[in-house]
């Protein structure tokens, strides 16, 4: 545990990507199994421990420290793990468990014994060791290392191509003993079952119109609509179909109507949408079915799921990811013809003469609706995991904007834990402000500092971690789309809201009414 805590502290304090990779390589070389594999799982957030809850930690701390002092410290620091790590009174010396023993104990101890064991560990730990244990146990570990960077470090450690690790990653489980045996040269590369394992997806870059289009020949690219759903991978073999989200989460149980309908053998890439007869409804309708372990019966009929497929990774047992996009698309079209589907169709290519022509098509849209812009893909591109440069681009529609008044603020997470950075904003309904959304991005670090100062200087009430502020600050909010929503008090749901401009100059009374905004936004959405 001491080595793990030291690793996390070094990663947090190291801005250099190459130094982070070197630090991880050194850790992999010095630390035995299963600790190094568990460390990787923790950093990539593939390790979940269940018994240590924030309320337990807070209760333990308040039994040892004046609750008033704890609350004042927590309000100042803004992060529970950091606060407990600093304020916990060290009682005695001792030996901490290894990372493997810590994880095993947290998972196996009865719930009524876990509090005493956690307190005993915190008693003998230093502040950085306490922080590491708490972050690990509660799932709040953020150290500035992405899953891809961790895999890059593994590839560098073992002298293997990153693509090889990407290809097998989702078929492996912590603590990754077989992976390290291969990287250490003690065993062959682990084999994974491609018929049951999620395969890392190929991602696109946002297009820079001034830079990218000037260097791109229209004839080299294929255009498709960017559908307004969620990216999924469909793996179907032997009558067993699994649906994975972009992050590799198995969401099959949430979409049985889709999974039960698929026929054939393949691994497909596409967009999950809802609607009858392949006519997509808006994202708000799809959202009714997301984040549910099992769907409501009414949703199966009202919001039937389907997939608009745009790529194929495996045609039966044949891995075709190395083929050019145009060849994969031909194979996908042939597969759909040979295996008639009631819930999967082909995302058609958009024909265009030049970039000006495509810009017009992007602005006018498609008759079937449900898109949020265009995708541009090199016709000769292989299917490469990650976000390779120059191959795939997303050209989204211009965002919509609305002025709103900040109503509430909450602390952020990670490096923003000391700042009020999550904002609820609203517009006027008669003479009352009604919330229409939340945003935590779109502003610079300098603007964040000014926003934080505004919140602290203009707080009128507190509700736990949330502060209500004086209704005086206007912000311009950008968003991708707006939909009618009975779940929200305002009747509007905004998709991907972010603060695009802080209107220090605009009086809050000049923000438009909810009725006017609903009429404009919902009419524009059509």
Describe the structure.
The protein has 526 residues and is an alpha+beta fold. The protein has 3 domains: 2-138, DNA ligase, ATP-dependent, N-terminal domain (DNA ligase i, domain 1, Orthogonal Bundle); 225-349 and 380-390, 2-Layer Sandwich (D-amino Acid Aminotransferase, Chain A, domain 1), CATH 3.30.470; 400-525, OB fold (Dihydrolipoamide Acetyltransferase, E2P), CATH 2.40.50.140. It is built from 19 helices and 20 strands. Strands 12, 13, 14, 15, 16, 17 and 20 form a 7-stranded antiparallel beta sheet that branches. Helix 1 packs across helix 9 (127-138), helix 5 (67-77) packs across helix 6 (80-87) and helix 10 (147-158) packs across helix 11. The radius of gyration is 26 Å and the shape is globular.
What's the mean pLDDT score?
A: 90
Uncertain residue segments: none
Task: State the shape.
Answer: globular
Counted beta strands = 20
- Strand share of the residues? 15-25%
Q: Structural class, from secondary structure content?
A: alpha+beta
CATH class of the largest domain: Mainly Alpha
Quickly count the helices.
19
Rg, rounded, reads: 26 Å
- The helix content is 25-40%
How many strands, what sense, and barrel or not for the largest sheet? 7 strands, antiparallel
Alpha carbon gap, first and last residue: 57 Å
CATH topology term of the largest domain: DNA ligase i, domain 1
CATH architecture of the largest domain: Orthogonal Bundle
Question: How many domains make up the coordinates?
Answer: 3
Q: CATH H level of the largest domain: which superfamily?
A: DNA ligase, ATP-dependent, N-terminal domain
């Amino acid at each position: 545990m001491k080595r793990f805590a030291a690793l996390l502290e070094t990663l947090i304090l190291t801005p250099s990507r190459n130094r982070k990779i070197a630090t991880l390589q050194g850790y992999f070389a010095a630390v035995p199994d299963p600790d190094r594999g568990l460390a990787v799982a923790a950093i990539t957030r593939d390790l979940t421990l269940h018994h240590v809850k924030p309320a337990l930690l807070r209760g333990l701390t308040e039994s040892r420290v004046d609750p008033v002092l704890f609350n004042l410290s927590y309000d100042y620091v803004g992060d529970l793990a950091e606060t407990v790590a600093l304020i916990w009174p060290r009682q005695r010396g001792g030996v901490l468990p290894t990372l493997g023993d810590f994880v095993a104990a947290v998972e196996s101890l009865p719930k009524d014994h876990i509090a005493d064991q956690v307190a005993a560990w915190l008693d003998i730990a230093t502040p950085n060791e306490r922080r590491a244990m708490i972050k690990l146990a509660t799932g709040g570990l953020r150290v500035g290392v992405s899953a891809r960077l961790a895999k890059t470090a593994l590839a560098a450690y073992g002298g293997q191509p990153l693509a090889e690790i990407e290809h097998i990653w989702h078929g492996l489980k912590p603590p990754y003993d077989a992976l390290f045996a291969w990287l250490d040269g003690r065993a062959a590369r682990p084999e994974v079952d491609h018929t049951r394992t999620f395969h890392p997806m190929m991602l696109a870059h946002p297009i820079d119109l001034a830079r990218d289009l000037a260097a791109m020949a229209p004839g080299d690219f294929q255009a498709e609509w960017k559908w307004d759903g969620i990216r999924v991978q469909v793996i179907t073999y032997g009558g067993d179909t699994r649906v994975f989200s972009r992050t590799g989460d198995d969401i099959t149980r949430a979409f049985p109507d889709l999974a039960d309908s698929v026929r054939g053998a393949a691994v497909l890439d596409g967009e999950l949408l809802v609607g009858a007869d392949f006519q997509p409804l808006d994202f708000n309708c799809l959202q009714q079915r997301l984040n549910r372990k099992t769907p409501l019966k009414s949703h199966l009929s009202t919001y039937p799921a389907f997939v608009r497929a745009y790529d194929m990774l495996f045609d039966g047992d044949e891995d075709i990811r190395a083929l050019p996009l145009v060849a994969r698309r031909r194979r996908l079209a042939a597969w759909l013809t040979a295996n008639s589907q009631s819930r999967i169709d082909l995302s058609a290519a958009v024909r265009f003469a030049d970039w000006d022509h495509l810009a017009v098509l992007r602005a006018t849209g498609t008759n079937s609706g449900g898109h949020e812009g265009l995708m541009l893909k090199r016709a000769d591109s292989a299917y490469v995991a990650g976000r390779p440069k120059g191959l795939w681009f997303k050209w989204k529609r211009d965002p919509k904007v609305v002025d709103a008044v900040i109503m509430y603020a909450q602390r952020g997470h990670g490096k923003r834990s000391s700042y009020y950075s999550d904002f609820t904003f609203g517009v006027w309904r008669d003479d009352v402000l009604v919330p229409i959304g939340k945003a935590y991005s779109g502003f610079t670090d300098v603007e964040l500092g000014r926003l934080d100062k505004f919140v602290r200087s203009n707080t009128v009430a507190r509700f736990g971690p949330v502060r209500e502020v004086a209704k005086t600050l206007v912000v311009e909010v950008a968003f991708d789309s707006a939909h009618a929503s009975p779940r929200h008090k305002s009747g509007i749901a905004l998709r991907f809201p972010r603060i695009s401009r802080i209107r220090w100059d605009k009086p809050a009374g000049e923000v438009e009414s909810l009725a006017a905004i609903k009429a404009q936004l919902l009419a524009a959405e059509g």
